User: Fold these one by one.
Assistant:
Number 1:
Amino acid sequence: MKKIILSFLFLLNVLIGLGQVGIGTSTVNANAAVDMSKTTKGLLMPRLTQSARLNISNPAEGLMIYDTTLNRTYQYQDGVWRYLLNNTVWLRSATPNTKYIYSFDSIGIGATSPDNRLEVNGNIRTRSSLIANDEIKTTNILKGANLITSGNVTVSGTATVAGNITTQASLVVDDATPIVQLKSSGVNKGFLQANGNDLRLGTNSGNTTGKTIIKMDGVDIISIDTSSTFKVLIGGTGGNISTGMKVARQIGPDENMLPILFGKVYGNNSQAWMSTNGTITNPSTGTYNVLSYSARISGRATILVTVAGTVPLIATAVYECCDHWDIQFIVKITNPFTGALTNADFNFIVLDPLNISN
């Protein structure tokens, strides 16, 4: 028995002298300091509570223990304790060579406190398509061949896409002066921008020949060029330009270049119409009261009345102010030969260039 013990100690001393220890094997791997071979048992490393682990004085780099408080294997690395991930975090699907699944918590890349499943503080680049079932959001640069999401695309920085952006919700650009820049071969051509409360749409500086064109049903409807030329229904068959209350001069004073009121009256007043809300009455033969509820006619207005028909008649119009809102003028039609008032069809136009409230 003593011979066996002495032989074992001699062998152990030789192995230690060689810098190698074999446990369960007499053939120690040439690259191993300790080579263990067991088919029914494993390696059990030192087990410490979290407090005991943190109280280790000057732990060596690479020191490993098992934390019994957190049930994690820890390694001292780069001056801090780091725990080793376990197989409840990253799971491999049943089909070989396919997917690894992370189902534990949130992942932060360059972010210490991620509040989403994946948070990246920096740039994200994909050379293929970027697909999300919810939102795609970044405060920096977003690049991809195609961006496909069923939620919102939110970019506070720059989005660079080589292909298409497809979303089933909203495309949101949130910035102090958000802009959608359109390029061709890297050259700025057109843009859509919010500046304060204004929305700007047009061509970029340097694009001297480009036009802003609005198409409807594949046809160019409106065109605006750099000389401020405004064209409607280019290549079409014609159409109407409908404006609001006013078309003003380019320079001051702010003069209204449109009639503020116009209409037509049939002699017997069976039919009458005008461009704004109001009433037209025929209180007596040859006399018509035209009352407007919105056209702010003033005493400086020009009222033009033309009488229809072949019989020579004289039409006069007199401005009569009723109150601040209801403005009226009176039209009288006279037979110049007899001096008698007579009913007749007539048209009227009211001009008031300095009127800015109509």
Note: The helical segments are 2-17, 50-54.
Number 2:
Amino acid sequence: MAVDSNFALAVPLLEYSKGLEEGTLERAFIETFASESDVMGAFPVKPATRGKYKFERTAQLPSVAFRGYNEPGNESTGTTTIHEEGVFLMDEYIRVDRALVDELGEKARMKQERLKIIAMSRQFTDTLLQGDNTTEPREPDGLQNRFATLSTNLFHNSAASGGAALSLGQLDVAINAVNRPNYLIISRNMK
């Protein structure tokens, strides 16, 4: 999938596809890819120029304080760290038997292309959520691994062996621990 270099803001894939020409393979691919996954439909993406994405992560906020009249204002700055994310490639080949295309027409090829896009979307979604770069270096770390190493707000629903059903109270605690929450990512069983 080629991404326009002018596409600088992070937007969901479905929103991005609206800017592509109607009827193109690229637009059809992106729309199918994103529509097969609730996560991919909502998750904002940004392009990685030259195969890398650089970003700053806040390490420490600046200090702030009230002041009295005729006193100097507080002066401080926060600290950030620069991180770089590499590109992880996912491309696939589709071979469709020519005899099948001769018998059923181009719809046979289109069916196989659609099935491949669906499979890619599901694989990408699974990796986005639970990818582990230490066990599979060709894939990125997923959200589960990233949050486990970044968050200091992790808590367990239950101290009992094997855990327990999630209570609405604990769900409220989890939501309130997040700055501006907008999505809950849960399994179908949990839902």
Note: DSSP finds seven helices and four strands in the chain.
Number 3:
Amino acid sequence: MSRPHHRVYVVELDPAVLEEKRFREANTSRDPAKPCVYVGMTGLDPKTRFENHKAGHKANRYVLDYGLRLLPGLYEEYDALRYREAAEMEIELARILRRRGYAVWQK
């Protein structure tokens, strides 16, 4: 069995992303004091994955256009996981952050 190496990560998005109707409508109950974020998962180091997004390689459009920086304080507590566990944690972390008032995009 392979060693766990997938990680979840969180990218802060420029507040200008709220001008995007689809993003705004997905986050109607956000706390304006909290940042907009993207939650993802990767088999790479999160820094490398963020750089890939910004370079347009398998990029999420919101990260490509609005990604500012990684927010390790929101994801570093999660250890490396197997793929399926990381996929589930990505969804759960997005839910947690949304409940805390963050405007969240996940996949």
Note: The chain has a mean pLDDT of 95.
Number 4:
Amino acid sequence: MRHFRTDLFIVGAMVLALMPVRAVFGQTPGAPAQADLMPPPTWLFNDIACAPTLTTQPAGGLHVVGSQDAVIKNMLGPGDILVVSGGSNEGLQPGQQFFVRRNVLTFGKKGPTPLQPVTVHTAGWVQILGVDTAVATATVVHACDGILLDDYLEPFTPPMIAARVVPGNTPQYANMGHILAGDEAFENVAYTSHTINIDRGSDSGVVLGQRYLVFRDKRGMLNESPEYSKAYRGSAHQLPLVEVGEVVVVAVRPDYSTVEVVMAKDAISRGDFIAEIK
């Protein structure tokens, strides 16, 4: 019988309030109860707040349109004063904080649409300094990455963590989900503490701190190459799934969640299967 290491998941039981999306994914009955939430330790705060997400909606609302600088800058960071495309006419007030984000479209990718969600990169968060009728200025509180012109703003919500992880030691194979894309549309993560998205959310009963095993289906790797032995080609369709890692849910939306890698035997990739641990 497999023994699960619950101590590894304490660090990963995290949540970041992210923008809502709608897509169509499977349901999982018998949802576990959500553990109590608590503020994360200081050393963990920025990692959670910078985690990637997905969206089915085009970027709208407030955008970064420039900087208070003598030259034109396309990338901004700590020490820069941003100019925001809205002021008191948009309800902005000094002291308000906002995430700065951008939708990431890869080559040939359409969207965002309900059937084609795209990844959302969090560049950092800012605090409003001065407000005019139609524009405002803001200072960079934290930069996860370079902030670009036309990045959009969303209200900042401090991250929280689950006070305890969801218990259990038995993988559920009846209704397995899948790994989706990660930050900036990357399709592979290979190290612990990296984050990536899955096609299960609160509508499927997912809660913060929920754990999943990650499996690879090697049958999808088979092709007609003569490099494969006849024995392998003849039995490939019977090969079992291979366990490649474990992840824990760190953010939940209705139709998808963001998970953190807590153990990886190999790179965890888009399309890999996930089985909830109960």
Note: Confidence is low (pLDDT under 50) at residues 1-28.
